[in-house]
Design brief:
Length: about 200
């Protein structure tokens, strides 16, 4: 398994309410609407976008990642209105160790509706079924209760606090780390088969 095996032709994933798909230049206005929101960017590593040109640069980066067949984000489209509402991706993938880390950002208008959890569950499922992963993890600043809730709802287990492990916006932050293992995921999502011989 190589990174380009997946990212050479990034697949579209679908859930009840969402499409996880490639980002396009047509997503510019929808993306800027949420990445310019200080509440959305409060606990992430990047600053709120100040102008459309900031968002254009990110889209340009994403498109180049697709072209290079390297780690790149899925855009999150809300199916009922066709609106681009966020991104989700594997921010790292240690191919030789079969481990990846998931990250996400979503429009504040769609918080508290289970949408982020829906997207995370779909990416976890994809990672375990198509990327030969045995462990998927996620980290968040200790203050980021929203992301913490998403990880818990996605069935991830809290493993501990990584003290001052990331420099974010000029300050070292403690991070909470969560993970889920392949066998844990499938034990929760695979129907149990009754022993017919009993």
């Amino acid at each position: 398994m190589e990174i380009e095996d997946i990212y050479g032709n990034l697949p579209t994933l679908e859930t009840d309410r969402l499409l996880l798909r490639r980002i396009t230049s047509e997503d510019l206005d929808d993306m800027y609407e949420y990445v310019s929101n200080e509440e959305v960017t409060k606990y992430v590593t990047w600053e709120a976008h100040r102008s459309l040109s900031d968002t254009k640069e990110f889209i340009k980066y994403a498109l180049s990642q697709y072209e290079d067949k390297d780690l790149s984000p899925w855009g999150i489209e809300y199916k009922s209105n066709g609106k681009f509402i966020g991104t989700i991706d594997f921010v790292s993938w240690e191919v030789n160790h079969h481990v990846a880390e998931v990250g996400f950002a979503i429009s504040q208008d769609y918080w508290g509706k289970g949408i982020t959890t829906e997207a995370v569950n779909e990416l976890i499922k994809f990672g375990f079924t198509h990327m030969n992963l045995v462990r998927i993890q996620a980290r968040c600043l200790v203050e980021n209760r929203g992301s913490e809730c998403v990880m818990e709802k996605a069935g991830m287990s809290f493993e501990g606090i990584l003290r001052k492990s990331m420099l974010v916006k000029g300050k070292h932050h403690d991070l909470k780390i969560y993970s889920i293992l392949k066998e844990e995921f499938f034990s929760k999502h695979t129907p149990k088969v009754e022993n017919e011989s009993l």
